[in-house]
Amino acid sequence: MQLEQLLQTHFGYPSFRPGQKEVIGQLLDGRDTVALLPTGMGKSLCYQLPGYIFNKPVLIISPLLSLMQDQVDQMKQFGEKRAVAINSFLNRNEKKLVLDTLHRYRFIFISPEMLVQPQIIQRLNRLDLALIVVDEAHCISQWGFDFRPDYLKIGEVLKEDRPPILALSATATEKVLEDIRRFLKMRDPFEYIHSVDRPNIRFGKKVFQTREEKMEWLLDHVTQTEGPGIIYTRSRKRTDEIAAQLLQLGISVSSYHGGKEAEDRQFIQQQFIEGALDWIVATNAFGMGVHKENVRQIIHDTMPSNVADYMQEVGRAGRDGKDAIAILLYSEGDEEVARFIAGEDLPSETQMELYEEYRNRKVDPKEMIQDGFISETTFRVLHYWMGLYPLEEVKSIFRKMMNEKYRSVDEMLRIVKSDRCIREQLVEYFGQTFKDKPEHCCEHCGIDYQQFLLPRQDTKAATAPSTWQMRLRQILLGTD
Amino acid sequence: MLFQYLVLDILKILENERTISSPYHLLKGKRSGQTIQDVGIFHLHPYFGIFPKLSRKKYDEEIQKLVESQLIQITDNSFHVTPKGIQFLRQYEPLPLNGWQYRGNEHLFFSRLSLIVQSLSHAREKVMAFSPIQKDEEIQHWVRHFLLKNDYKSGLLGHNLYDEILQSLGKVQIKEQAKEIVVKRLTGYQMPGFTWEQLGMEYQMPELDAQILYVACLHQWLNEILPNRLQYPYLHQMSEHIRADIPLTGSAYHTALLFKQGYSIEQICRMRKLKQSTIEDHIVELAINDPAFPIEKFISKEDIQQVLVATEDYDTKKLKVLREVLPHLSYFQLRLALVRGENVCN
Prior knowledge:
The structure holds two protein chains of two kinds.
Chain A (H helix, E strand, L loop, with lengths): L2 H9 L8 H9 L4 E4 L8 H10 L3 E4 L3 H13 L5 E4 L5 H9 L6 E4 L1 H4 L2 H9 L4 E4 L19 H4 L7 E5 L4 H10 L6 E4 L7 E8 L2 H14 L4 E4 L3 H13 L4 E4 L5 H13 L4 E4 L14 E4 L6 H8 L9 E8 L2 H11 L4 H12 L6 H4 L5 H11 L4 H27 L4 H8 L19 H4 L15 H10 L3
Parallel strand pairs in A: 1-6, 1-7, 2-4, 2-5, 3-4, 5-6, 8-13, 9-11, 9-12, 10-11, 12-13
Chain B lengths: L1 H13 L7 H7 L4 H10 L13 H13 L3 E3 L4 E3 L1 H8 L8 H4 L2 H20 L12 H13 L6 H16 L4 H9 L11 H8 L3 H19 L7 H6 L11 H11 L4 H8 L3 H14 L11 H14 L4 H7 L5 H15 L1
Antiparallel strand pairs in B: 1-2
Helix pairs in contact in B: 1-5, 3-16, 3-19, 7-8, 10-12, 11-12, 14-16, 16-19, 17-19
């Protein structure tokens, strides 16, 4: 049967999106494949369809617990009930139950921490799998920004006689790609690399002398122009500050960060998706799992710590393919903040020495977390390297990593400071070449902002039901 | 301001008796001997565990505000409420809270309810794909089971639940604002709920105040639902295991079982390999929870009377002072007398 027909049968879509057919074709031939596809381009279809065609379970290794749950939820929402997540959220009984009935599932999501447990890998290696998927594969690279030490072990635990591996990521430089191939022990993989360029996004940039001027511009811009939009900034406190000022100006806006209650975060996401909120002021915690097609503006209140983050955040604009605009704000000294944030998650030398001290005292270094000396994320990385090398060597490794992160900040800064075409520089950063330059390409090529930014309509909020009885009625019984 | 009232109200009761941290542990619902015993001695049942997530930083800020507006004064070992503070207290009506019985489980009730309402709202629109408002797997599992058992596909469940909520919430004696807040924390098809920040702005009150009204309303609502299973069959199911019959800490529960079998404190100590003081804490906890608990096994009626007289004479419930006055009684006996004494008086 033709692939298109299979697509129609299983998903009801008439045609593939760019890259999907190529990737699936190679996997069906049994070839390892690396696919760099931007978020929202149907990555998951690349393994779902082969799962149905082979009629065997697919193993998906995924680094972020929340993301994993999202994916399982989504599959279930679309009628695939044979999806399961194996992660640390499962208690012992649940884990046993899942492992005993593993063969009944079609899509098995697993965290790297779980995968390396002997009992689990043995069970998995006994299964006749269709495919092994490594999602967010850039996490394998210690030069990447979400390095997950356990990812390094994936290649080691998989048995020799394994099904093809599909490594998925949104963005990766050549250096990261090399790490993916090497650590996953891929065999002459086919590579599909989608262009990172998003022609419908225009890249604006504004440089200010002082932070005050920047803030003034931001407030003015948001009151004058139409959303929906996301303002990214780097600290929780700052999201609250900006949101509070915008609220005072009558903008429909909310801040969003990891410090908010889970339900409140859900409400904010839903309000934004439904259009009840025009703007979100967020840390980089916002975006994953938020599917909104018509985001028209992305504003960076301050420069991100690296180009990959910038691309990912900007990429949340214009998913519907219509015009969207990204504006990066810069004022003197912003790179200092970016450097600070970049180094935040890396352990300090004091923390490394403390780890050694705990170990010498025969205390589980993990207690450093409870004792308030280190965050969990930082500990995870430190723990991995301390398990491999002596203290002095670990120190030098982290010094190297820190320099690498500073270098990434400099790369971002170079783009900010340069007068060259922004789009060109971004695309080059990912080692790609550049095809057609759209009109109104970027700040330096010239943008007529008025063509893209509509004046803000002072929308009166739809009259909400006035009493609790009416609201309840509308939720449960509808408006009729 | 409601939150300040709440703290001040507790402070008034604990004035000169406890440290400034005591209300914090109480509001957090700390399961320690001291806090639990204070609940009994000072009759602080309504406030226990109202804010399980309250941060120490936030609490200290609020205390600072009370000091700055001269409603309280911090002393060396304790604090006292100023005349201005008393004035402030008088402006408010007591909050209808029931912390001791619900212990934060009201949030579990609401989590179930909100996911059920969200599911029914989407099912009504034939939209089966949505992002569940509750991420907790256990709650999702519970709700799935509830929906299947009650045949949500027939479309009747939504109507019946609407009627139940309308009736039961309508009967709750609390201002309408509190009910609005509760319903605005529900979410439905194309009708997202509102954040605490948004609710605070709408009603022009601090976020914490909105949360107090929300908790008070849930407590009163549960008080209406629980005794009326036949009237509110669906809401009653959602309240399953929300109110503990014997609201004890896990360890105290074990002690209670042994005690009921007739074992003495010494025997229980040996059997459970616990210190005597721990078992005594458990016994005090039992006495707080069970008005019929036979404390006479440990202290005579006459001695109880003496303790009560002493608390009035010296106007204190400080154990140290009482011990000096009544040296023949142990701390354990004093605590029991204080816990029960109040009940006898009332």
